[in-house]
Design a protein that fits this description.
6-stranded mixed sheet; alpha+beta; 7-stranded mixed sheet; 16 helices; single chain; Nucleotidyltransferase, domain 5
Length: about 475
């Protein structure tokens, strides 16, 4: 490995790390993702973000900065903005879940939607960059000469290097990249009336660009440090987890991601109906098949808000429920059925307007039973999405905040009747970014994984309970948004 600073720009937080050449974590920080509002929604606060990054670098010990050979940047896949040749913004830097460009997709015919999936491997959805590009170009009018669309990670890299380019995994989340030719699709761009020239040249995550003299001077880094756009956070997490063919990555952040790698894309009508998202793997070789569940680790904050608990109280409830669950002291028949669509519906519905539902409440329902039902509902939703994939998992590797939630993990292992290998290391995505920038392979063993095994008796009890609520589950999933 090469010593590296990693920057992981997430939905709710920015994670900054320094790793040495043996992939040991020397320093880290986590700060809320800087945002502010425009007339539509929250957008990235670029000044706040750059100050956060340069402040972290400047706050390192001199010997730590002297070690750094690479900066590797990763981020959420569908964010972005128009960037002028001098790196000024010609549009807001838009968040991934922003639907301000949805109207540009409303005129697409069923045939065009099917064709877009055949070309890009993505279902038509306003989360993806193409609709945001169309909106940004219309909003900018004639004030965007020479502007190109960059993801937030690509833009931060541009501020460090002075260059504008796209990385393969992020490009494959724009809804504008032809997966087969690995070039921007004039045909798909034409469906929304834009010129594919608005998208920049592509560069592999393994190809770095030198920092500018000004950036090196302002941060105290060496002028020979190279910057790498490592790619889409979930895919980079797969690199950090040393994902192999047959492995399933269960990436648990604000959302919950399910990711397989493959040697070819899955572009069949069945995959399109399931709204599975194809992509290009990190480094530009191979493919990924991905689905995102909008409610992942964010459920923790939602439960705190709904139930009036602070983080420590909710953690205590979860730990107690886990102990009671293992000892068989939970009457599962009393559990409310929770559809945890607190942030929208996952595939195959993929509806951002969908909302959660709780059914089966009684006059004597207890707070702990609602918490148990919420995590059980999350696992039911996870299983539904997993069943959409054409691939069976040989091994499930879990990364992210779920590693600290024993109840969530055990329910998942039991309901799936599948063992889990769970990383205890909190920054697997960052370690994957370092590996890409080092042209090296990450080692799953270095993430301190531990196993969570299913129990046949508990699995049978969960299935018996689900058989009794199956019709209700299917009904609430179809409830109008």
């Amino acid at each position: 490995m090469l010593s590296a600073i990693t920057v992981d720009i997430g939905t709710t937080s920015v994670k900054l790390c320094v790793f040495d050449d043996e992939a040991r974590l020397l320093a880290s920080a986590r700060q809320p993702t800087p945002v502010h509002r425009d007339e539509w929604a929250e957008i990235y606060d670029i000044e706040g973000l750059t100050e956060l990054i340069t402040g972290f670098i400047g706050g390192l010990e001199a010997w730590q900065r002297a070690l750094v050979k690479r900066i590797a940047i990763t981020g959420v896949g569908e964010s972005g903005g128009l960037v002028l040749p001098d790196l000024r913004l010609a549009s807001p830097m838009i968040l991934w879940h922003d639907h301000r460009g949805a109207r540009y997709f409303s005129v697409l015919t069923p045939e065009q939607r099917a064709r877009i999936y055949e070309v890009t491997g993505l279902p038509v959805n306003a989360n993806y960059g193409l609709s945001k590009v169309a909106w940004a170009l219309d909003s900018a009018g004639g004030n965007a000469p020479g502007a190109v669309w960059l993801n937030i990670a690509e833009y931060v890299a541009g501020l460090m290097t002075g260059e504008r380019y796209a990385e393969h995994t992020l490009a494959s989340r724009t809804l504008a990249l032809d997966l087969t030719t690995r070039e921007w699709s004039g045909e798909v761009c034409g469906f929304v009336g834009i010129d594919p020239a608005v998208f920049p040249m592509l560069r592999s995550a393994r190809d770095g660009v030198a920092v500018t003299t000004a950036f090196a001077h302002s941060t105290g880094l060496s002028a020979d440090v190279l910057v790498h756009v490592a790619g889409h956070d979930h895919m980079v997490g797969g690199v950090g987890a040393d994902l192999r063919d047959g492995d399933l990555l269960n990436s648990t952040g604000t959302t919950e991601g399910l990711l397989f790698t493959s040697s070819s894309p899955h572009l069949s009508p069945d995959a399109r109906r399931a709204k599975l998202a194809n992509g290009i793997a990190c480094g530009g070789e191979g493919y990924t098949l991905f689905a995102s569940i909008p409610t992942g680790g964010s459920a923790f904050a939602t439960l705190q808000s709904i139930l009036g608990l602070d983080g420590e109280q909710l953690t205590g409830q979860i730990d107690l429920l886990h102990q009671k669950y293992l000892s068989g002291d939970i009457d599962i028949t009393r559990t409310p059925l929770v559809l945890p669509q607190f942030r929208g519906a996952p595939p195959p519905t993929k509806n951002a307007a969908a909302r959660g539902i709780i059914t089966g409440l009684r006059t004597d329902t207890e707070l702990s039973e609602v918490i148990f039902g919420a995590f059980l509902g999350m696992v039911l939703q996870y299983r539904d999405v997993l069943d959409l994939f054409p691939t069976t998992a040989r091994q499930v590797k879990v990364i992210g905040p779920a590693s600290k939630n024993p109840l969530w993990l055990q329910l998942k292992a039991d309901l799936l009747a599948t063992p889990l290998s769970v990383s205890a290391f909190p920054e697997v995505v960052s370690r994957g970014a370092q590996a890409l920038a080092s042209a090296a392979r990450a080692d799953w063993v270095q993430t301190a994984p531990f196993d969570v095994h299913p129990d046949a008796e508990r699995s049978a009890r969960l299935e018996a309970w689900f058989d009794g609520v199956r019709r209700q589950w299917e009904y609430v999933k179809g409830f109008p948004a």
